[in-house]
Amino acid sequence: MKKRVRAIVVAGVLGAAIALSGCTQTDEADRGLPKGLPATVSVADGTVNDPVSSKGSWSFVLTVADAAGQKAAVTELRDNGFSEVSTSSSKVARTYALRNKKDGTDATLVLTKRDGKPVVVFTVVSTK
Q1: 8-state DSSP, 29
Q2: For residue 119, what are the contacts with CB-CB under 8 A and spacing of at least 6?
Q3: Does a structural domain hold residue 120?
């Protein structure tokens, strides 16, 4: 009888493990984003590099696939309540200054290239 109970328990544990193996949760920390980054700073798909944070400020570099990925980074913030304060362009970069008045967060995004790859340099500051 003990062997049968043990077999049922083992089968149940294995079944649960298999069933839950497809359930994953990816949060911002899993992506390598700086700890404490405001939730309104939604980040487009890409690889996070060089994350840095201090009290009330965060910065990181997001490597994206192409120019569309760079534009998606700006769109993500706009979709999360950020409005454009100003923009500027040069031959090597385009800079966006954005503000979320609701949560008191300012973000500057610089769209440029690093080692020939498109990147977005994020600098985020909490003004509250």
Answers
A1: G
A2: 49, 61, 62, 63, 64, 70, 111, 112, 113
A3: yes
Structure tokens at 53: 């944070």
Count of domains in the chain? 1
Centre a 10 Å sphere on the Cβ of residue 101 and count the other Cβ atoms it contains.
Answer: 11
Check if the beta carbon of residue 60 is closer than 8 Å to that of residue 120. no
Residue whose C-alpha is closest to residue 79's, from 49, 109, 100? 100
> Does 10 reside within a domain?
no
**Residue 108: how many CB atoms within 10 A of its CB?**
16
Q: Full-prediction pTM beyond 0.85?
A: no
Could you list the residue range(s) of the whole structural domain that residue 105 is in? 31-126
Taking only the tens place, the pLDDT of each residue in 52-67 is 999 999 999 999 999 9
CATH of the domain at 85: 3.30.310
Dihedral pair phi/psi, residue 121, rounded to 5°: -95, 115
Residue 18 inside a domain? The answer is: no
Q: What's the DSSP call for residue 44? A: -
| 74-78 mean pLDDT | 98
